[in-house]
Structure formats: structure tokens, C-alpha cells
Amino acid sequence: MMWRRAAEPSPAALAVRRRVRPSGALAGKKYYRWYYAVYDVSDGTPVLRKPEDAADVPEDVDDLTALAKAQTVAGTEVLRTEHLKGEGLYRLRACEVEPGVVLVSGAPLDDIEDTVGQLITIQVVTFGLALLALVVFGRAMLRRGLKPLSDMAHTAHGIASHDLTESASRLPLRADAPGGGPEVEELRTAFNTMLEHIDASLAVRAEAEQRLRRFVADASHELRTPLMSVRGYADLFQYAAANAPEERDKHLARLRAEAARMGVLLDDLLLLARLDAAEVETPLRMEDTDLVELVEQAADAFRATRAGHPLTVAPGPESVRLRLDPQRVRQVLDNLLTNAAVHTPAGTPVSVAVSVTPHSAQVRVADKGPGIPPGDRERVFDRFYRVDKARSRDRGGSGLGLAVARSLVRAHGGTLALDDTAAPTVFVLTLPLGPPRNS
Q: Edge-to-edge strand order for the sheet containing 88-98?
């Protein structure tokens, strides 16, 4: 005969074992709506002991008895979930509390289900509220973080609605909204720098257009006057008085003079156009030349033609060899000396000085005349600009002399400027000692 060893009771069964009375009642605290049934299973058939309180067991104990029998067969604790008739869903548990005695307990699940449902509802509502708060807070933070980008977009739309075809177009709009972190700040700085560059480019374009309009107007005015003179003298030949030899010679001389003036003006305009397009065609013929010798030649020519203005050549280096176009540099020197004579009263002293620095050679042309008014000093190199606003030609030409001179000096890689620190009038011509950029 084989003997089967009974399974060891669980800790819960040991705890309940001490609460079962011999009479079959369950001592100690009882829970509301819980059921407790004690079965004797000494002969293998569960027999329900009479409970102390009829409410300890349900009216229909078939499910409890079946579970006690299942525990007897299994020899270990058995758990099941059953729907007791008239009572609802219960969690049943059968365990052996002592040899031959099985306790079956039942706990209602409806309260647990309600509690679990409430917990689920609370969790869902809490999660929903937390998600809503997160969305609202995140959207507010996102809007705050993207506010600078929105400002830049608004600025871009403002620029798009700006008419940039106008000559006086400017871009006063800037992205100034703070915040957004270092990345947005870097983007804002780059955006504003781009706007500054565009604004500066528009200003340069507007200024260039204004200068072009002035240039066309002045060129038209300069060419119109000699053309009208030529037309007037040509009309005189229609009269018999103009056919007299002395009248004809006088009118022809005036025609030649006006034609020569137009020729000089057109030559200057052509030279300026060629200098402006120096990258295509450089109107210079470079050769090694002594700058001091050029200055002395210009001084001799000035003394011969402008005897009313005493000229002094200051002591300086005996020779300064440079690579330049001697005819064009001589043209610049003649222009500066002529301006000193034309715009000063007779007898005004004029001086020329040559000096050398480590990297350049300088020629200073000065006069003791009344000087240039402060309001005109910045525009003396503009084309067709005259200090004399009445456009009188008795003391000057077309207003292209200094513009041509500065362009020729720039073509040599040098500068021509008006010295503001000296009085009354000093022009400084600077030429590099090395090869010029257009050589």
C-alpha cells in the first residue's frame, strides 16, 4: 500500500486554523458579506458543520461544497471565482486548517470591482487633466519660445510689402523681440545683419541713382550751352552781315572755340567711362618715370601760363622713380595747379612739395587763397560739381577736372584727397612705391 503525504498547509491556512472552533464556528472578527464554511472530510466526502450564525454561509452552499471536495482531491489550497446564486460574484478559497477539516471562505468581488472601476476612473480623469494641463502649458511655453521667430516672420512680411523699387527705399524694420535662447538670438542677429546689409545696399543704390540723375542733368546742361552757341552762330550765316569777311572770321572762331569746349567735355566723359570700366580696359600706359621731374615740368608750364600766381617748389628728394603713366599723372598735376590759379585772386602764392614715406610718394599742392567753404569740401570731387552754384564759367570749366584727376590717381593705385587739417586749401596726391593694382 502506498501512502501519499499531505501537502503542507499555507501560512494563511495556519493562521485560520487557530480560529476554527470544534463546534464549527469561526472565532474572531468577521467581514461584512463574507462567507465561512467548515467541512469535515475525514472519509473523503465534505460534510458541512453547522455554523454558529446562519449568515456565515449562503443559502446555496453547492459551490462551496464542490470547492471543498476539490481541495480534498488536490490536497492543497484551491482558489476559484464563482457566481453564487442570488449573491453575486465571489472569490472562493478552500484550505485544510487541520487534518480532516477544510475551511472554505468567500469574499464578494462587487465592491472590489467598484473600487477598481473608481480607481480606473480616477486615473483616467487625472491623466486627462494632466494631459490637458501639459498641452496648455506646453503650448504657452512653445508660443513664448517661438515669439522671436514670429516677430522675424512679421518683419519679413513687412519687408515683402515694402516697395523696394523706389530710389529712396529704406528698411527701418528690425527683429527686436527678446528671448528664445542662444540659437534664436544667433538667428536674430544674423537676420538683422542681413537687413542692415540690404538697407546699406539700397542706400548705395539710391545714392548712385541720384548721382546718375545729377550726372545726366549736368552733362545735358554742359553740352546744351555750346550746342546752342554753335546753333546760334550757324543761324547768323543766314544773314548778309555775317557773310562779311571780318564777321565770318569772328563767328568761325567762336564756333571753333565752342566745338573745342565740347570736345574737351566729351573727352573727359569718355575718360571717366573708361576709368569706371578699368577691369575691362585700363586707359594707362605704364612706364618707369621720375615723379620729381614731372612735378618740375608741371611747375615750369604753370609759371609760363600763370605769371600772376607765384609758384614755389619746396625742397625735397632729388628723384623718385615710380611706375606710372607720365601723361596722366602730368594731367593730374596740371589740373591741381590750374584749380589753384583759377579759384584764387591774382597774386596768390602757390606751392608744390614732394615727399617720400616708407610705402608711398606724396605731392602736396597748396595755395593761400580764400579756401573752400566747409559745406563744399566733401563734394569737390563729385562730377560736374562746382563751388560756384551759379555755374559761371569765367572762373572754371565743366566741373569734371577733379573727378577725372581722382579717377586717374585711383587707376594708379593711389589717392587724391583734400587735407582738412591744413588751411586754406591743400590737395594731397599719394602714389604707392610698389606696382599699382592696374599695372
A: 47-48, 35-40, 101-108, 88-98, 78-84
| C-alpha cell of residue 10 | 499555507
Phi, psi of 380 (to 5 degrees): -65, -20
Residues 356/318, Cβ–Cβ less than 8 Å: no
According to DSSP, the residues that pair with 425 across neighbouring strands are 367
For residue 169, is it left (φ>0), alpha (ψ between -120 and 50) or beta? beta
Cα separations (Å) of 174 from 70, 181, 183, 400?
A: 86, 18, 18, 41
- Name, in order, each residue with C-beta under 8 angstroms of 211's C-beta and a sequence gap of 6 or more: 382, 383
User: pLDDT value at position 240?
Assistant: 52
Overall residue count recorded for the chain in this entry: 439
Which of 158, 169, 174, 161 lies closest to 204 in space, CA to CA? 169
Cell numbers representing residue 117 in the block: 472601476
Q: What is the pLDDT of residue 438?
A: 46
CA distance 332 to 347: 23
Q: What local confidence, expressed as pLDDT, does residue 111 receive?
A: 76
Q: Judging by beta carbons within 10 Å of its beta carbon (0-12, 13-18, 19+), is residue 404 exposed, middle or buried?
A: buried
pLDDT at 168: 52
Instruction: Give the span between the Cα atoms of 326 and 346, in whole angstroms.
Output: 29
DSSP labels, 182-207: HHHHHHHHHHHHHHHHHHHHHHHHHH
- DSSP 3-state percent helix, strand, coil across the chain (nearest 5): 50, 15, 35
Which residues fall within 8 angstroms of residue 292, CB to CB, at 6 or more apart? 316, 317, 318, 319, 320, 354
> Which mean pLDDT values do the consecutive 10-residue runs of the chain (439 residues) have?
42 52 58 83 83 80 86 85 83 86 86 84 94 91 76 73 61 62 74 78 76 69 70 67 66 76 74 64 80 91 87 89 89 88 86 90 88 77 65 54 84 86 81 65
pLDDT at 3: 35
